[in-house]
Amino acid sequence: xxxxxxxxxxxxxxxxxxxxxxxxxxxxxxxxxxxxxxxxxxxxxxxxxxxxxxxxxxxxxxxxxxxxxxxxxxxxxxxxxxxxxxxxxxxxxxxxxxxxxxxxxxxxxxxxxxxxxxxxxxxxxxxxxxxxxxxxxxxxxxxxxxxxxxxxxxxxxxxxxxxxxxxxxxxxxxxxxxxxxxxxxxxxxxxxxxxxxxxxxxxxxxxxxxxxxxxxxxxxxxxxxxxxxxxxxxxxxxxxxxxxxxxxxxx
Length: 251
Ligand code: SAH
What we know:
Layout: E1 2-6, H1 17-25, E2 28-31, E3 49-52, H2 58-70, E4 75-79, H3 90-99, E5 103-106, H4 111-119, E6 132-136, H5 149-153, E7 158-162, H6 168-178, E8 185-190, E9 198-203, H7 207-210, E10 220-224
Parallel strand pairs: 1-4, 1-5, 2-3, 2-4, 6-7
Antiparallel strand pairs: 7-10, 8-9, 8-10
Bound molecules: S-adenosyl-L-homocysteine (SAH).
S-adenosyl-L-homocysteine is lined by residues 9-10, 35, 79-82, 85-87, 110-111, 114-115, 162-163, 189, 191-194, 219-221.
């Protein structure tokens, strides 16, 4: 049996209880060493076989899993954040499916949510925006033209942009071309939830300058949103005059 597990964004306490239980019991652990905090592995058994997938190819990963299965062992495949977001797990799951190897998926806290916690920010403010777009700029992996940053920017919603910090200037250009005003707030969080997390805040007009010299060139989330530092309406859910299924209006 193989368990694909979301490790969370970095802080070893942000893995789920279920994910941690699987890690504790695993015979074999394959973890994405480029992003997963190795401190998570402290709970593994002393005799667990541990592999860093950073230097491995897909056939090599599958080879390790196949061997473990043949020996009746349980494997944990540990991915950063939530494995469904830029996790490259579909190809692994499909290969296991073909070979009749059973697996399941344990979700994790994605870094775009750890970033909201770090910023102490709600992404969906009434009267401001009710939509969060999770996306990336086109890099070595192409992005369909209809999902370009420029076209998504037209919504004026909250955008969480992964995997794009190395070309921030291009990201900013595309967001402006798509319709965000130069005054739109933007925040960059590097290594959210790690002890060395960094936050830089600015506007689309200033951010490229604000980030200079901060050493932020990888493992960072870009959040552009009218929510950041904005006036908003109070939520209906807790408004005294608002009734809903669990509470009658009080005013
Ligand atoms: N599956 C992961 C994303 C993997 S792609 C998730 O759900 O979070 C890797 C990208 O995620 C990085 O380039 C960066 O944009 C973002 N990322 C991962 N960990 C991060 C963290 N702790 N803080 C900010 N961004 C992070």
